[in-house]
């Protein structure tokens, strides 16, 4: 980091508007996680008809709650770092929170794709789908979507 970049970052640390924006982001993340948790508790996935779709949709809910919490923690660390004159936080923590949060977003989208393909398959081949469907297979597909998203994100992010 050169002197001009240090000056810009120091100006951000003194800027109250930036700190208020980060505080709002923290409150939005934790409010979203709380709201998703209460919605999952109150309504669940009973509006869905098939058990496989229920399993996949539970993964979708869990991933959205998880990435809201991870980004909330990330913004808290950002606020602490900027507020207390650049309190040094280990770079692995920062990279881990940002990487896991982004991977959770991608994984949630991939789980929705798995739901779409599963519903498409059940529409085209309904008899075969009903004979061979299982909750265990749906859970395995959701876990594979999460792992694939994490691996794809780790390979697509710049290494330096």
From TrEMBL:
<keyword id="KW-0812">Transmembrane</keyword>
<dbReference type="InterPro" id="IPR053286">
    <property type="entry name" value="Nematode_rcpt-like_srab"/>
</dbReference>
<feature type="transmembrane region" description="Helical">
    <location>
        <begin position="95"/>
        <end position="115"/>
    </location>
</feature>
<feature type="transmembrane region" description="Helical">
    <location>
        <begin position="55"/>
        <end position="75"/>
    </location>
</feature>
<keyword id="KW-0472">Membrane</keyword>
<protein>
    <recommendedName>
        <fullName>G protein-coupled receptor</fullName>
    </recommendedName>
</protein>
<feature type="transmembrane region" description="Helical">
    <location>
        <begin position="16"/>
        <end position="34"/>
    </location>
</feature>
<feature type="transmembrane region" description="Helical">
    <location>
        <begin position="136"/>
        <end position="155"/>
    </location>
</feature>
<keyword id="KW-1133">Transmembrane helix</keyword>
